[in-house]
Amino acid sequence: MTGAALLRNLKRKLNGWVALSVMGAFLALLPSLYILLGLFAHTNENWQHIQEYMLLDYALQSLWLVLGTGACTIIVGVSLAWLVAAYDFPLRRFFAFAFVLPLAIPPYIAAYTYGNMLSYTGSIQTFLRNSLGWTLDQRYFDIMSMKGAIFIFTLFLFPYVYLITKTFLEKQSAAFIENARLLGKNSIHIFFRIVLPLSQAAIAGGASLVAFEVLNDFGVTNHFGIQSFTTAIFKTWFGMYDVDSAIRLAAWLMSLIIGIFVVERLVRKRKKFSSPTNRVTPLRRRKLTGLPMYAALCFCMLIVSLSFFIPVVQLSVWATWTYEEVLNERFVQLLTNTLSISVVSITLLMLLAVTVANVIRYSRTSVFAMVMTRLISMGYSIPGAVLSIGVLAVMISLDKELGPLYVWLGFPEGKLVLSMSLFMLVFAYIIRFLAVGFNAVEAGFEKTGNRYAEAARMLGMGMTRTFFKVDLPLIKGAVITGFILVFMEIVKELPLTLLLRPFNFETLATKAYQYASDEQIQQASIPSLFIIAVGIISVYFYHWVGERQAK
Q1: For the packed helices 329-362 and 366-381, what is the interaxial angle rounded to 10 degrees?
Q2: Which of 73, 201, 446, 485 gives 158 a disulfide partner, CB atoms 3.0 to 4.6 angstroms apart?
Q3: Transmembrane stretches, by residue range (predicted)?
Q4: What pLDDT score does 545 carry?
């Protein structure tokens, strides 16, 4: 077979795969279009009231939350990344892994835990009053505020900045830092004059992920009484029963997300550095001794304790108090619901992710690949509360169009089938976390390349057979990685599940939120610990895969 004939045959075989990929990208785009169109819909009295008295406060509260958390996570994340990447000190390898563990604890669980611990009847104040006899000023323990929310978000979201900055420093900055050391520059000069300017693009990337997570949050802001866009959407939807105004709020929040995304891209585009050598050498770590070594150990231990050990220990203590009350048949049903909805969603999601990634790697036009990648990644940058509004609007529209079919199938007239089923929740999970699975699979394809698949095609294998016989065994590790990462995200997802779940369908995340809302913080410990356990396993597996790839 000639080269031209082989290319024509390949294009013909790709048509079905391309159709599935385009359909998946369109489904990811559809809820966003519904939301943005809400900006141009007719307004009602509720929206006029929100716009006149509340919208500015929502915007300012959300903005201060993002700016405060962003600044604090940059300070903590970059400092820790520089310590771990540039210096050698006792327990450095332990801390390098431990700084990732806070990602296993959802911020809303941390908010419930710290809020109860620091309350007047909490374990900390009770110990200080009864055991030490201290008279306490409540102002120093009031975490239920904007400052408290920034504290929680900083402790449990800084790993985004830490991971990206640490990877950049270890692999891309060695030549610049070594040259500065040879010129006699001290560590402070190197950090502020070289490391920070050099890492601006990496820092901006990590900070943008933090901003997206903050804007996506509902549990922390609702528990602390902060009027953010996400809490406003919930109150408008469930308090006023006004979906139209909730869609307009979601559209405003999505506009803010787009603005953050554009700014982050502009920062990355302008801040580019080229290495003075083509060789990529790892950064040589300097050994810390004396007072700097003890200072580094204390700082690292403080962060790890506050962001992981203290909340886990407190939750474990509470679990020993309430396990007889919580661990029952209803809890088994919670686990079954969580596992079943997660496995079904992830299976469909990974099938779509593998299909899209396989099409993109064969694409001869970079524009098509870029557009598909952007569309697939869009869902992860949209807050769960916003995406749920768009998904609900799409499902209601589909139900209206399929009304005659429902009547023919025997359903009552006007019955909302899709909008009241688990299908809607699964659909939302796929859109929200498709980017996570896609990125893992795409990394696997980039590592293996196309040479094996092209060899199979030259030997006469069809497109589909080549994928199952050659490609899939090669990227099996990447698919498993994507599966585990998506599983962790779905298990701890709160806003999306809370808004779109069918009546009486509870997961571990929604049950923990329900306990906390009912002031039963101790009872929330066991579902919270199960969520954290899933996160720890996922983080460990991700770290283990990264270590293997680095060797």
Answers
A1: 160
A2: 73
A3: 17-42, 62-87, 94-114, 149-169, 190-212, 246-267, 288-319, 339-360, 380-398, 418-441, 467-488, 524-545
A4: 63
3-state secondary structure of 93: helix
Closest CA to 468 of 481, 458, 484, 479: 479
d(CA 132, CA 140): 17
Could you give the residue ranges of the DSSP H alpha helices within 493-524? 495-500, 508-517
Query: Following DSSP, what letter does each residue of 183-249 receive, concatenated?
Result: TT--HHHHIIIIIHHHTHHHHHHHHHHHHHHHHH--HHHHHHT---HHHHHHIIIIIS--HHHHHHH
Q: Tell me the torsion sign for CA atoms 534, 538, 539, 544.
A: positive
Domain ranges of the chain: 52-314, 327-506
Q: Is 286 helix (H, G, I), strand (E, B) or coil?
A: strand
Q: Tens digits of per-residue pLDDT, 140-175?
A: 788 888 999 999 999 999 999 998 888 888 776 566
C-beta of residue 498 within 8 angstroms of C-beta of residue 510: yes
**What percent of the chain is predicted at pLDDT more than 90?**
21
- Burial classification of residue 292, based on how many CB atoms lie within 10 Å of its CB (0-12 exposed, 13-18 middle, 19 or more buried): middle
pLDDT tens, position by position, 85-136: 888 999 998 999 899 999 889 999 999 999 988 888 888 888 888 887 777 7
Cα gap 103→206, rounded to integer Å? 13
Is there a common fold for 52-314 and 327-506? yes
State the Cα–Cα distance between residues 551 and 547, nearest whole angstrom: 7
CA distance 216 to 65: 12
How far, in Å, are 97, 343, 366 from residue 348 at the CA level?
A: 31, 9, 26
| 301 Cβ contact list (under 8 Å, min separation 6) | none
Q: What are phi and psi of 88, to 5 degrees?
A: -115, 125
Segment 294-313 mean pLDDT? 94
| Alpha carbons 229 and 234: distance in angstroms, whole number | 9
Which residues neighbour 11 within 8 Å (Cβ) at sequence distance 6 or greater? none
d(CA 277, CA 173): 11
At residue 355, the 3 state secondary structure works out as helix
* Average confidence score pLDDT of the chain: 80
Residue entry with tokens 């509004």: 389
> What is the pTM assigned to this prediction?
0.84
Whether 2 shows a pLDDT value over 60: the answer reads no
Residue 299 burial (CB count, 10 A): 15
Structure tokens at 523: 């009872």
What is the dotted CATH code of the domain comprising 327-506? 1.10.3720.10
Q: CATH for 52-314?
A: 1.10.3720.10
Q: Which residue has the higher pLDDT, 312 or 477?
A: 312
Distance CA 196, CA 219 (A): 33
